[in-house]
Design brief:
It is a single chain. By secondary structure, the chain is α/β, with parallel strands linked by helices. The chain folds into two domains: about 5-140, P-loop containing nucleotide triphosphate hydrolases (Rossmann fold, 3-Layer(aba) Sandwich), CATH 3.40.50.300; about 145-415, no CATH class. The protein has 16 helices and 13 strands. An eight-stranded mixed beta sheet has the order 7-6-8-9-10-11-13-12. Strand 2 (about 55-60), helix 3 and strand 3 (about 85-90) form a beta-alpha-beta unit. It is globular and about 85 Å long. The model has no long low-confidence stretch (mean pLDDT about 90). InterPro entries: AAA_14, DUF4143, P-loop_NTPase. Keywords: ATP-binding, Nucleotide-binding. One of its GO terms (molecular function) is ATP binding. This is ATP-binding protein.
Length: about 425
């Protein structure tokens, strides 16, 4: 299935020949290789590049095992450059090569080569590239298919596409399968045999059972504040397992580095500061999350929240979970403090949006619950409620924007309404 990924292609085009190493990151099987070797290569060929000046190396393939040796790989690339013309190196899954930083640094000193690499682990980006390339590494983060990308190639109506996406996620391979059994089996298999196996083998983890159960706990808790202490208590009380806070925190970091999950920090809106405890965790692909739970626990509101969070990230926003302190009186008239939650505090440059996600807003009680947090925010940035369904945006009497999920997902500038 050839699904257009124009936003990512445009990012590569904008970075072409900029003297930096273009680093394409993202969870495995999200389409990095297809973007590089199919979509971007086709663009290069259609815009004057000579096929002999495009060097392609997929380091995760057994046929290129010898090229995982950094010296062998560097010599191979140098030997492929026969003249002084412009060359384009497309290097896939660079983390398979030890000392890859030295190879890429050496390539930076060659004036007629433009380098593009992919990697499935954020650690090499956040540490090695920032440190070793001294500002000459340029990241393009790839996500599984957005709903708009998924829907563009879907053979069916919106409702069917939405139900499929909520259940099986947006990995491109899954989108090409024709029946639910294929999708479910594929997701279960790659989660166990690719994603978790990668983490376990890469970091030589001994606690295989624990990290599997940790994924289950995080999958069950999307949309709910949690922390390593709570998780450790769950292991101790329900599983009789001694899984320490420190180890849990470390393993969560490893899952995030492998792009399986993302962390959303909590932000005190009135106090204008971050709150260290009780982060929220979201899955990069909901199909993997649902498969891990054997397609049980299909809570529509939390799944919608996860989809909105991912969509905001791929649009380039910084996203936190908001907290608003309000004061009320108890039955005895004593003043008490309450914390109300704003699902997302969304920032980009000088712009800010406050977003609530609600599956159903038909009851007065539900409207009160969703609006109260927004009413207590002491600034004038736009306040948005995203509801399930296909409603076009409208403003209520308080100036809050209410829009259907379909409009939000299928309009890239939907927050600007």
């Amino acid at each position: 299935m050839d699904i257009k990924r124009d936003a990512y292609l445009q990012q590569l085009i904008e970075r072409k020949d900029n003297g930096m190493i273009k680093v394409i990151t993202g969870i495995r099987r999200c389409g990095k290789s297809f973007l590089l070797f199919n979509i971007f290569k086709r663009y290069l060929l259609e815009n004057g590049a000579d096929a002999e000046h495009i060097i392609e190396i997929a380091l995760d393939g057994i046929e290129n095992e010898e090229l995982r040796d950094p010296k062998v790989c560097f010599r191979y690339i140098k030997d492929a450059m026969k003249d002084s013309g412009r060359y384009y190196l497309l290097l896939d899954e660079v983390q398979f090569m030890p000392r890859f930083e030295e190879v890429l640094n050496s390539l930076l000193r060659i004036s007629n080569i433009d380098v593009y690499v992919t990697g499935s682990n954020s650690k090499f980006l956040s540490s090695d590239i920032v440190t070793e390339f001294r500002g000459r590494g340029d990241e393009v983060r790839i996500y599984p298919l957005s709903f708009a990308e998924f829907y563009s190639a879907y053979d069916g109506d919106y409702d069917d596409a939405w139900n499929d996406y909520m259940t099986y996620g947006g990995l491109p391979q899954v989108a090409g399968f024709q029946n639910d059994r294929q999708k479910a089996e594929y997701l279960r298999n790659i989660l166990a045999n690719v994603y978790l196996k990668d983490v376990i083998e890469r970091y030589k983890l001994q606690s295989v059972d624990e990290i599997g159960i940790l994924v289950d706990v995080l999958a069950s808790a999307i949309g709910a504040p949690t922390n390593p202490s709570k998780i450790a208590n769950t292991f101790a009380s329900e599983r009789q397992m001694n899984y320490t806070n420190k180890t849990i925190s470390h393993h969560i970091d490893l899952l995030a580095e492998a792009f399986l999950i993302s962390k959303a920090s909590r932000y005190d809106i009135k106090g204008r500061k971050y709150i260290g405890a009780n982060l929220k965790y979201y899955f990069t692909d909901l199909g993997l999350r649902n498969a891990r739970l054997k397609f049980r626990q299909q809570e529509s509101t939390h799944i919608m929240e996860n989809i909105v969070y991912n969509e905001l990230l791929l649009r380039g926003y910084n996203v936190d979970v908001g907290v608003v302190d309000v004061y009320d009186k108890d039955k005895e008239g004593k003043r008490i403090r309450k914390q109300l939650e704003v699902d997302f505090v969304v920032n980009q440059g000088s712009q800010r949006y406050y977003i609530q996600v609600a599956y159903d807003m038909t009851s007065e009680e539900k409207q009160t619950q969703e609006f109260n947090s927004l009413r207590n925010i002491p600034d004038s940035f736009k306040k948005i409620v995203i509801v399930n369904g296909t409603k076009k945006p409208w403003r209520n009497d308080e100036g809050f924007v209410i829009m259907g999920m379909k409009y939000f997902l299928l309009n890239a500038d939907s927050l600007e309404f």
